[in-house]
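Records of this kind hold a single protein each, on a pair of labelled lines. With that in mind, the following record should read easily:
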Amino acid sequence: MSDQYSPIETKEFNPADLENLVRFCVQELQSRPRHALPPPGAFEGAGIYALYYDGEFPLYQHPAVRSSEGVQPIYVGRARRTKSSGSRPLFRRLSEHAGSISAAANLRLEDFTCRFLLLHPVWVSTVEDLLISHFDTLWNGAIKGFGVHDPGGKRHGGEVPIWDTLHPGRAHARTMVEKGASLPELGEIESAIVEFQRRRTQSQVRLVTQEEARLILRDMLPEDDDN
């Protein structure tokens, strides 16, 4: 009868171990219901959130990006209480993201949902870092710029973020272009997406090739005359 039981685990369990903290945070986030973006009712508090995508954008069909079941986020972020945020920083941040997606010419807000956790301020940044590392999302890594605010003033120079190049429409990105900011080369975007897929792919998943990414991007985006 003793053969039916597993060997005794003698290693001590440490609740504060990094691996256990990550697992607790992921489980807690995934246990929360998904909501439309932004959530239908305003609420108070700070915390972290995850955005999920389930749409037809051709470069976002990889299972590490498109998640109809709300398992893999496309973006993870935080909202902290500050002097300017008021009492509803998390709801305010989700509403800002809804505005960014609505402004994009090639995304639909209805294809996005969100989950969130209200947290004590001391935990907000730590939990965000743990979740970003765990989920390795597209918009936190390869396609940067979604979460940036309008840089304003003289900082409108420089380079337009990859996110705004791939999803044109936000007012501050248009202002950057009007003031002479450069755009990332299409090859840079192609490489970022293809490399992300390679890193996140299991053997049975078909990848978008570099050539396919190039053709899709050239159909969607104007190419620089100099390139």
